[in-house]
Amino acid sequence: MDRQVMLETARNMVATIDELPTIPAVATQVLQLLNSPDVVVDEVADLMLTDQVMTARVMKMVNSPVYRPTQEITSLKRALIYLGLRHIKEVALTSSFIHAFEDKGGVLEVRPCWEHAFGVGMVAKVIAEKIHYADLEKAYIAGIIHDIGEVVLSYYRSREFAEVLATTIQHPVKLIDAEAERFGTTHAEIGYCIAEKWNFPEAYREAILFHHDPLAATSDPVLCSIINLADLFCTVRGLNYGGRSWVSFNLAEEAAWKILKGQSPSLAQLDVERFCYELDDAVPDVQELVSSIFSKA
Amino acid sequence: MPISDKDFELLRDFIYNLCGMYFHSTKKYFLESRLTKRMEATGSKTAMDYYALLKSPSGGEELRFLLDEVTTNETYFFRCVPQLNAIETKFLPEIVESKGKMGFRKLRIWSAASSSGEEAYTLAMMLLEKRATLLKDWIIEIVGTDINETVVAQAKEGVYNAYSVRNVPDFYKRKYFKEEGGRFILSPEVKKFVTFNKLNLYDDTKMVFMKSFDFIFCANVLIYFDLAAKSKVVQHFYNNLQPYGYFFVGQSESLHGVNDKFKTVHFPGGFGYKK
Lengths: 297, 275
Prior knowledge:
The complex is a heterodimer of chains A (297) and B (275).
Chain A: H1 3-15, H2 25-35, H3 41-49, H4 52-62, H5 76-83, H6 85-101, H7 110-130, H8 136-145, H9 148-156, H10 158-170, H11 175-183, H12 187-197, H13 202-209, H14 221-236, E1 249-250, H15 255-263, H16 272-294
Chain B: H1 5-19, H2 28-42, H3 47-55, H4 59-71, H5 81-101, E1 106-111, H6 118-128, E2 139-146, H7 149-157, E3 159-161, H8 170-176, E4 177-180, E5 183-186, H9 188-191, E6 194-198, H10 204-207, E7 213-218, H11 227-240, E8 241-249, E9 263-267, E10 270-274
Parallel strand pairs in B: 1-2, 1-7, 2-6, 7-8
Antiparallel strand pairs in B: 3-5, 4-5, 8-10, 9-10
């Protein structure tokens, strides 16, 4: 299917959605502040504290097994110092996404969605590290947001999306192919349109659009490949929307794998088997993180 | 005896690097209990004493005892469900399509460490269910081999205890087993698709005759071999596999560094190898 046509279909679909979620104003301000060269932690902390929900989430995230502090961190400022300025952007953005889509009640359950999102973020960061990608934080964020279009479909096209999900459970069909058939567009294009509306930087928009087709990427194919592989690995190792997403792949034939090996030839030596087993070990950590973020306490 | 996370990771890495078997963190308790047995048997006071013993010149023998403990030397029907699901939904239809196009309607499967036959018979039952549909008019050949004659004889007999059949879905249990005094007797209908033979995987003269398989399974055996032996045996499997065939090892095993020709093929809950 022609991508321009699919993008147009996605744009029309997004345009018909009333009350599209917005990113909290504080998050936008935090991101702007973090971009200024002489930013100090105190300023960021003061700004974040004006949003209690965001503050609570940051505290939960920083105390989760994914970040592993040696002792519990109890103040926001300490949390920000612990995370470092670079990581504040990660948690601020992540917190905003959760906020934007909270309590909407879609076809996909909230927790498996976020487990997949955080899983892909985490694995993307690990892969990025292995290939010496310059910006690990970018890989992490792109991982978290890559399926934002899926969430939109789940909330705003729930009836049709439930039918699509049912076909992928009965047959080994990739979700993206089933979506293309049903909607004439996919979560990749829809996610791109949302990212456009939210004024996301080009690299993130592209990662959302091409995370199933890294060869089509022009601005940062390496990032798209990282997200593509992280997505594939998470889907086969238990972070698969609670079993609602089916995929099978021959790693050597994946375009993303070839792109990343071109970028960093030592990747060919990766112990893929152990990588999978270690990912299994990390699944409970991801689940715990998501569970702590969504607990009301 | 509880072992620290650090000691667990050390032992896990040691076992993985030497045998290609990975212990998931969720298996820490299990490894702990098995290690405790071996530590008592060898008079090791701490996990580190035992680790030192494994690394010593006489460690090879002890490692075999440990592997016996951790693999529990047991097998049961429908052991690796993710693998069976992937075969049923994806790999089998794919192979049937490519072979069917060539007009070659024969499927060959090898359970290369068949023990008392559970794996081979599980596959036989699964394929039997497809005789009216996907595998209509297909010839099915399933071969089970093991080095141990006693288990080969057991496999041929096809009588199992409740533990072996605990994972068998009710539908299959009713259809293919007859229960008699707590024993489960496998239907001759299933047995006739499978032949069992004694085979040493290390015997080159015999291995070269195991030809043209579409699926080969070899779980929890390669972990006992050193790298050279492993490479040799895996190369045989590679040669014995059809170009579109699949090779599977045990659920926590790895062939990394053993054979660089096989490619990993991933599916929900596991992976296999392809040429």
